What does this fold into?
Amino acid sequence: MGHLVPYGRLAVLLSGAHGCDVSIATVLPTVSSAEASHLDSLFAAASPGVRRLDFPLAPFDESQFPPGSDPFILRFEAMRRSAPLLGPVLASAGASALVTDLMLASVVLPVARERGVPCYVLYTSSAAMLAFCAYFPSHVDANATAGVVDVDLPGVYRVPKASVPKALYDPEHFFTKQFVANGRGLVHADGILVNTFDAFEPEAINALREGKVVPKFPPVFAVGPLLPVKFTPAKEPAGYTRWLDAQPARSVVYVSFGSRKAISPDQLQELAAGLEASGHRFLWVVKTTVVDRDDAAELGDLLGPGFLERVQGRAFVTKGWVEQEEILQHGSVGLFISHCGWNSVTEATAFGVPVLAWPRFGDQRVNAAVVARGGLGACEERWSWDEEEGLVSGEEVAGRIKAVMADETVAMKAAAVRDAAAAAMANVGTSYRSLAEFVARCCDAGGRRD
It folds into this structure.
């Protein structure tokens, strides 16, 4: 979902604000229920300006990979192996430009080149993480015998070893091989679109554009924060919406760690204890499995005896899918405890909600540093993440929530970030102009707006 959602937002923005004809190659079968539901809602809301092109994948044998491999990484591998099948899909769409994902760059770029179609990458994380991805192959070449060390991004800043995604510690891991290959492939793209804005990440964006990170890097278009698609509203408001409506302004702590990772049972119970002890109202989206279709556990069993009864009234706890942007723009929400997946960060910037960053894996520590640098919130660097031992105690969680909720400066800085984000997306703003330049390039290449 972290990759899918911004593609839908970009497609709708190109179709509506910039008058483009857009087709989305929809990979089948889907992995999660949330993915399938989101796609159905997207095409219902965006038709006819955004068309659906079904893209069935070639047969893929998962048994050749280690048991328990991340199903979403396996899906990317299946997509990579199916890339040659994209040629006929491009032809059927009559495409004058193609936008692909970083995770597919090294295999999709040659297909587009063979068809004579300009190929761009939509990078769905931060500009700082884009700089890391682009520079990492050179870092690997220079430190082949040293193992994982701090990564000094030229013109940006140092990414400490502790913030490097754990999968990259193993040079033979198939994710690492994908990551390095795609990083090398970026220089062959016609341009890179990034879901961020100049005022939020000036160092990283400027370093990429000026060729400091990688010489002769393609043009970088900062086009964010890409705003949510307006889906057809439900006949009845969701239960969490009705609950939020009854809460005072800026009184609710919203807690969500995204759609990709589950939290251990022990850490769930410590988090529950911390939320309860904080004394604040909270809306908590609990995730216990990697794939939502596998989730059958009961909330009462997960969160400890009597927890739900004790917090009844001042809390809303669910395992269901929520429309996060609807929650973040609600006036009762005063703090977002987030893993710092990039969609969550950009939504918080758009609505000015302070973030208490608790990164869990992957790019999230790099993104959390962007949150702190950009004035959107605070980051607890000592709090454990994926594959690290130790628990963050409920006492620590409660103390940090109390401190951030009581700090008016945090709220003021987040509001300033919101205003800067709105200015970037306005018709004369940096992100609007950047996307308009991208559209003009596509028109020049293809002779029409599609």
